[in-house]
Amino acid sequence: MIPATRAARPRADATAMLERVHESPRPLDLRATLQPLRRGPGDPCLRIDDSGLWLALRPPTADTTTATLHFSRVGPGSLGAVRVRAWGDGAEAALDLVPDLLGEHDDWSALDTSAFGPGGYELLGTTLRRNPGLRLTRTGRVIDALIPAVIEQKITSTEAFRAWRILVTAHGEPAPGPAPAALRVPPTAERWRRIPSWEWHRAGVDPRRSATAVRVASVAGGLQRTAEQEPRLPGVEVRRLLQTVSGVGPWTAAEAAQRSHGDPDAVSFGDYHLASVVGWALVGEKLDDDALVELLEPWAGHRQRIVRLVLISGVMPPRHGPRLTIQDHRRH
């Protein structure tokens, strides 16, 4: 069923507010669906406050335009109704992206849930029943998913989120409209290419990762086409194409494809914690990557959905080992 969307009449002034009410026939958990786009609690591109959720972005095919989206629930009794307000010269294009952002085309109906009952993977069934509004988001914007994934390679989340915050705050643009003061639109591909090496260094990004990010920005147009083709490219092909950029491996490609393409099968194999978390939640023991591949194989095509269910369940293995050491590359 196509969701109903009531649109306000567009205004001639591109900086004026536009508004739509997105009505979905299915439950929608707004925060859980958009949470993967948030790069830590201080993310300059996504903020949550008492009024709702603010997202600063560039429409997928318009690198030089900017927009701010504000999401809020229409009312407690609404099934999947969300009011979306938009500002900026990219406001109208950003509003057109809302169905994908809110996972309207994310179809879970083919997911095999036969093993979700007692005696099987009961946690998955319980989590799915408790979170009927969970969906996979799709931004359609490759560079804004791939560069932060490059920054996050082989370091702690604390380091990565700090680097992202420093670089976007310095090189992004203030979000249009009445957005929170610290909200920023991510840099353009051209701006990423022009960041001096010492600024990457000050942000804590080593030369290997900064060089990869610059290579990504240099071929941003070609990478963006992987999100624009119709019919949509299979996830495995998208991840293969992303990995044609030197320095982008399977983990980085999966992290990006999950967000930019809404890839339901992209699993971040090689992640420092993921195999342990999923293994503990589903079979009661920490696993390595090879065992995780085998465990998720029955759900091929939907493996990211299984991972999202595990992560939203909140079940975590006990911590007995040493934590990953935070490295300060700025002093090297």
TrEMBL record:
Coiled-coil blocks: none
Gene Ontology MF term list: alkylated DNA binding; DNA-3-methyladenine glycosylase activity; DNA-7-methylguanine glycosylase activity
Keyword line: DNA damage, DNA repair
Matching SUPFAM superfamilies: DNA-glycosylase
GO BP terms, alphabetized: base-excision repair, AP site formation; DNA alkylation repair
Gene Ontology cellular component terms for the protein in this record: cytoplasm; protein-DNA complex
Superkingdom: Bacteria
InterPro entries linked: Alkylbase_DNA_Glycosylase/TA (IPR051912), DNA_glycosylase (IPR011257)
Transmembrane spans: none
Protein name: DNA-3-methyladenine glycosylase 2 family protein
Naturally occurring in which organism (per UniProt): Herbiconiux oxytropis
Source lineage: Bacteria, Bacillati, Actinomycetota, Actinomycetes, Micrococcales
